[in-house]
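Interim report, section 4.2 (structural modelling).
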Amino acid sequence: MHFYLPIAEMSANIFIFLGMGGAVGFLSGMFGVGGGFLMTPLLIFSGIPPAVAVGTEAAQIVASSVSGAIAQWRRNNVDFKMGTVLLAGGLVGSVFGVQLVVLLRAAGQFDMVVALSYVTFLGIIGSLMMIESINSIRKSRSGKSTSGRRPGQHSWIHGLPLKMRFHRSKLYISAIPPLIIGGLVGVLAAIMGVGGGFIMVPAMIYLLRVPTNVVVGTSLFQIMFVTAATTILHAYQNHTVDIVLALLLMIGGVIGAQFGAVAGEKLKGEQLRFLLAGLVIAVCIKMAWGLIGTPDEFYSIGRAIGGGH
Amino acid sequence: MALLLRATGTRMKPTVLTMAARLLMIGSVAAGLGIAQGAVTDTAMAQSSVSGGANVVQPPAATPKRLREIVHADISTRSVQVTSSFTGTEIIVFGSIEHGRPEHAASEDLYDVVVVLEGTPEKLVARRKSNVVGLWINTQSMTFESVPSYYAISSTRPLDEIASPLVLRNHDIGFDKVRMLPVGGWESGITTADLRKFKEAVIRLKNSSGLYVQSDYGVVFVGGASLFRTTIDLPANVPVGNLNARVMLFRKGQMLSQFKSQVRMQRQGIERYLHDFAFGYPLLYGITAVIVAAGAGLAASSYFNRRRA
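Predicted structure of the assembly:
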């Protein structure tokens, strides 16, 4: 059954995109990740223009982060003060990121920048996860217990001004690092069509030393609002949010996530991370090949932006 | 007879079903009244042809024995509706040659018919990639003022056998004969070689995406030498906009007569509503997209919560 997508301007088989949403939803339910960093490349690989993929995926992440954030909030796992500081940075980053998208599209460099961002971030995250999971699998095989967090140290972060007290996280730190982290995540959300949890979660754990139980809820709180703002800005400035495509992905994603969560409980943490790392690296290599491999066709055409519709 | 036929012709909607009836009608009218009619200019034909087959009946004009051949044609689909289930369509162009002399249908004096269906001109950017420190990046670009979004040619023989390149150029027939002017003109430092390469690339890419199509033996004569028809494929990726149809009659490398018409192509139903909403009220559209996404997230979380509880 085909449906003509109003913004992507192409006739698409709805089952392909429902299935794609379901598959990525399954993985995100299984691994406990947002899935934007898998969904956007998949949409691009399937022929959706990169700008539409990014704008539409932002809308889908709103849906998945709303349900995630509510679940975390019910368990009292959201540090609202920390979340608000991250959000303030995130909104500035999102506005900046969308302007960057406008400029890059006009210059014809957006597709390249999206691919390059994915290769960079997926490459780094994928390799780190791969190394970490291999190490912990090895350790668990040799019988040693896996070490948890290292004890807190006084780092340079504690020397910064504008200190704030975050009760829920039991922290007294400067507001500058969370603002910067939030801002970076906002830019990535606008350019890459991701929630940015893969940057924010490790940064909160290792740089800010936020307790692990509030990290996911707090980052989901920020992602929910930042992707909402990003969706509105993309729709307003770039006309790249395809509501029909987003709905298909949401429906598939919601169903897939439920099955994924069940499947995830049956696998060990290290094995899960190893599988996810493999997947991330595979997507990274596919993206990288598009940038490095000699193309069959050196030319490309597109409608001039700024011309009438 | 002519009056009777005109009555039926105007009452019937131009559908594929009635197409065959009209095809026959045009043929018989042309054969029956042919001698009594005078030569009609191209523009007069274009204007009068809008009302389907009835256009054949023209006031007789005083003309000497040798009557000019006139091409009459019609299109099966005058209006293409792009709805949510649009997966492309087929357009049948059919017609007849009035005052056709059967003796010319033999040997080298064949009549040739060329049918051109052209999409709305659009501003288009072509970009060329080159290798910059290992990465394939768009480095050169050329913007063309107006390039037909879609261009289909169907003819009785390969174009180069029908007329000389000069004649074809004068009538804008052929992909390479389409006028493509770069924005900024020659002042922007474009060389002839560059322009040629970019033009070739545009044609090649449009061709490979099914938007520039050519069928060398697409037009076939049916029932003798005076009736012809051709089928043109309008794929789902044709940019939405009105199409111009031209039916041209050639003999001995010269154009004898031309028929012009338009195919209206527009969005309909939910497709039209969503597109107008996204481009007419982008801010409201963005906010709506977020509300839909948040609603979907809320619905999913409450549904699965209730199921688990």
